[in-house]
Amino acid sequence: MGLAKPETGTALHDPETFVFTVASPDEVSEQTLPKGPSDDLLEEAKVLINAYGDNDNKTEFLSFFKLLLDKYAVFRDEISLPAVILTLNEYAVTRLPFPLKETEWPSTF
């Protein structure tokens, strides 16, 4: 018997020789970042803000928001809470029927 014939399109190369090919572009945009827990928290918080657009109960809203934060507490190392609060505060100004100062938002998980 002789040596096995390699499959078509494959070849054996000397281990001391590097074989390179031309890189081909992938379909992932370098501009697109995957969504993370911070994005998910923002989306859910915006839904909560929209739900309270006609409800003037600030205490209840803050309680539900704290429950939402508790859900994301496992991701506290990945979420910049001050950045999320800043974005939500700007979003809530025109949507909630009651004013919320930055100091009224929870500052920790």
Descriptive report:
With about 110 residues, the protein is mostly helical. About 40% of the residues lie in helices and about 0% in strands. It is built from three helices and no strands. α1 packs antiparallel against α2 (about 60-70) and α1 runs parallel beside α3. It starts with about 35 loop residues before the first helix and ends in a 17-residue tail after the last helix.
Q: What is the H-and-E element order?
A: HHH
Low-confidence stretches: none
Helix content: 25-40%
Radius of gyration (Å) = 26 Å
Strand elements, count = 0
Main sheet, how many strands, which sense, barrel? none
* Percentage of residues in DSSP E strands: under 5%
- The assigned structural class equals mainly alpha
| Tally of individual helices | 3
> What is the straight-line distance between the termini?
71 Å
Mean pLDDT: 87
Task: Give the overall silhouette.
Answer: rod-shaped
Task: Briefly characterize the structure.
The protein has about 110 residues and is mainly alpha-helical. It has 3 helices and no strands. It has helices at about 35-50, 60-70, 80-90.
